[in-house]
User: Which sequence fits this backbone?
């Protein structure tokens, strides 16, 4: 079987249907819902740990996983990722994001003099990101583009809230397959004792998508709750539960962990993703590594979804510290 034959046998049903190039409506004709625009899920570090990112994403990828996580970043960071979806070489996703935290200065009075002292735990944060997916199907190629603006602020006591607004554009060589619109997500994050972190997110809480030749639709609302817990100074574990509109139970359960070797220069990661809800129930193992050198972090993840799912996915990412808190 050739590589193209393999692609048409496994990738087209899995990806095109999952991207929902059709736009179903409910029988009552009331609130229309589309499931076009696939989940971005950026960052190989998080995907290597099963995709438990609601509480774990405290870098630029938080713009998608939970925008409140931007409040907890330090300095200015950028991340670039590339995903080879389903191990076919014909479906690629790219993600680029930059996030920065505006440092808060607290006035201090000593001996009748006022000084300004940095408080890294306060202030506001911004993020700019763009995600793209491209399916190379020849004349029928399909693409999505999603630029996003994110903002996060603090409520005091280690509590952050955030929001992301994304603009959506899908196009294809197939007539009538395309759409445009927007979506907004909201999240909250809380620092817990012993370095643990709790995250809550509601994605697509506000959305509007206009298919070509169709009426305006909405993206399905998905909500998530996550917890990350450090273990000593070199390890942590994280877990997520994700719920989608119309599902009786969790649509996805994620759990994983990482351990840093060689004085935080090399990390090993592993996790599990359990898919349920409206999709065929299956559990997928994930693996990955991370390499840290000065201001650079290189990450790789493998989602081994080849036996029962559409195929394995390889993810690569570079996380860069552009500027330390000033």
Assistant:
């Amino acid at each position: 079987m050739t590589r193209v034959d393999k692609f048409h046998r496994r990738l087209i049903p899995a990806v095109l249907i999952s991207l929902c190039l059709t736009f179903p409506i409910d029988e009552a004709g009331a609130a229309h819902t589309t499931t076009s625009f696939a989940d971005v899920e950026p960052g190989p570090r998080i995907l290597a740990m099963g995709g438990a990112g609601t509480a774990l994403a405290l870098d630029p990828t938080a713009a998608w996983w939970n925008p409140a996580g931007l409040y907890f970043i330090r300095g200015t960071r950028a991340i670039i990722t590339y995903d080879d979806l389903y191990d076919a070489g014909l479906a690629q996703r790219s993600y680029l994001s930059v996030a920065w935290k505006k440092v808060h200065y607290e006035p201090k009075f000593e001996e009748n003099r006022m000084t300004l002292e940095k408080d890294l735990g306060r202030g506001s944060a911004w993020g700019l990101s763009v995600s793209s997916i491209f399916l190379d199907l020849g004349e029928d190629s399909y693409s999505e583009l999603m630029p996003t603006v994110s903002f996060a602020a603090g409520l005091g006591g280690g509590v952050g809230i955030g929001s992301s607004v994304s603009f959506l554009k899908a196009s294809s060589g197939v007539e009538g397959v395309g759409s445009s619109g927007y979506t907004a997500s909201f999240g909250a994050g809380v620092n817990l004792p012993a370095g643990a972190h709790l995250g809550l997110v509601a994605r697509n809480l506000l959305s509007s998508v206009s298919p070509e030749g169709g009426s305006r639709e909405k993206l399905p609302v998905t909500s998530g709750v996550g917890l990350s817990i450090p273990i000593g100074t070199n390890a942590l574990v994280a877990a997520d539960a994700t719920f989608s509109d119309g599902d009786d139970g969790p649509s996805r359960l994620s759990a994983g962990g990482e351990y840093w070797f060689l004085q935080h220069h090399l990390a090993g990661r592993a996790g599990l993703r359990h898919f349920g809800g409206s999709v065929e129930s299956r559990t997928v193992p994930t693996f990955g590594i991370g390499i840290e050198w000065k201001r650079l972090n290189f990450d790789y993840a493998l989602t081994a979804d080849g036996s029962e799912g559409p195929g394995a996915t390889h993810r690569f990412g570079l996380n860069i510290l552009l500027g330390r808190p000033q």
Remarks:
- The first strand starts at residue 76 and ends at 84.
- The chain has one domain: 3-323.
